[in-house]
Amino acid sequence: MLFALAILQTALLLILVARLMGGRTRRPPERPLPAGLAAGADGSRQISIVVATLNEAQRIGPCLDGLRAQGEPVAEILVVDSGSTDGTRELVEAAAGLDPRIRLVTDPPLPDGWIGKAWALQHGTTLARGPWVLGMDADTHAEPGCAAATVAAAEREGFDVVSFAPCFDGQTAAERWVQPALLVSLIYRSGAPGDPRVRPDRVLANGQCFLARRRTILEHGGYEPVRASFAEDVSLVRHLAARGVRVGFLDGSRLYRVRSYRSVGQMWREWGRSIDLKDAATQGRQLFDTVFVVLAQGAQWPILLALWAAWPSVRGEPLLLWSTAGLATMRGILQVAIRGSYARRGPAWWLSPLADPLAALRMVLSTTRRPRAWRTRNY
């Protein structure tokens, strides 16, 4: 049994190291361009910002403040509302009175088979006039120069579609303990974010700050190919990458901040519904990734405790000890690597590897259940 466990641990370690090798060349965080970016004589850099909303009154204020602070080349800010009844529309209309670029539009009734956010983004993309469309979530707060920096990064790297990882802000201590473990589970499955060697079926994306050439999106069917996905961002970039579109994922932790949830309970429910990414993977791939996260991340603390309890029996098993130590070391390296994505850390954040079993459990639960609600909509 000890030899079998040693072989398993070694295999897990080798897979993880191979997936994370691209992290050595990861680009530093993108920096805002507060002075803006010239739109170009032909308007080739003009940006249409699209924000999908449904009952976001408690979060839309900072988002609108951040978008109003964006200079050139932002030409318009389309807030696509799906019939909010909590005062969201009134807040948007008030912001439109302060900035003529802001326009409130209502998407048509949700068609059968569509998830609400994908439908709103589809509608906003078709209405957009700029050659670049920047999707921003209602729970974000963009720094001045965020939008200009996204286009500058896309042009520099030659991307037609690129999304940006956020800086998580305003989290409670409980969230700072659990959420990093959930985030690391994504890295375990997909490899180092931004690695150009990542296969199309493992590319990551973040819809909170998602830039795309409008022409490219529409030429490939818009959001219709991913209409039923609860992880439409990842599903879309994998769909596009498989068709040869240049897609990317960069560090945007200096471009914008996000406060998605009000409590660790809400985070557990809502972030966990899409953490599995099963809408963007085959069943076989999903099964392998789930088992991998359970064994390589979730089971490591129980294994370490078992080895400590059985120390006299295992101290003569160097392969088992080295492979276990290797997995623990890689987890520690990842914890340090993601520290820049958090505005606040503290003891709870540094102890988040202890929440790895919970992250693995959440992935199993998410994998085995199909969501029936998202935000305030039932499906």
The percent range for helix content is 40-55%
- CATH level-3 fold name of the largest domain: Spore Coat Polysaccharide Biosynthesis Protein SpsA, Chain A
* Poorly predicted residue ranges: none
Largest sheet: 7 strands, mixed
Neighbour order of strands in the largest sheet: 3-2-1-4-8-6-9
Helical/strand content category: alpha/beta
Keywords:
single chain, about 375 residues, alpha/beta, Spore Coat Polysaccharide Biosynthesis Protein SpsA, Chain A, 7-stranded mixed β-sheet, 3-stranded mixed β-sheet, about 45% helix
Write a structural description:
This protein is an alpha/beta fold. It has two domains: about 1-25 and about 280-375, no CATH class; about 25-180 and about 190-275, Spore Coat Polysaccharide Biosynthesis Protein SpsA, Chain A. About 45% of the residues lie in helices and about 15% in strands. The strands form three sheets. A seven-stranded mixed beta sheet has the order 3-2-1-4-8-6-9, with helices on both faces. Strands 5-10-7 form a three-stranded mixed beta sheet. The chain has a two-stranded antiparallel sheet with strand order 11-12. β1, α2 and β2 form a beta-alpha-beta unit. α1 (about 1-20) runs parallel beside α13, α2 (about 60-70) runs parallel beside α3 and α6 crosses α15. The longest helix is centred in the last third of the chain and has 20 residues, at about 320-335. The protein starts with a helix and ends with a strand. The relative contact order is 0.16.
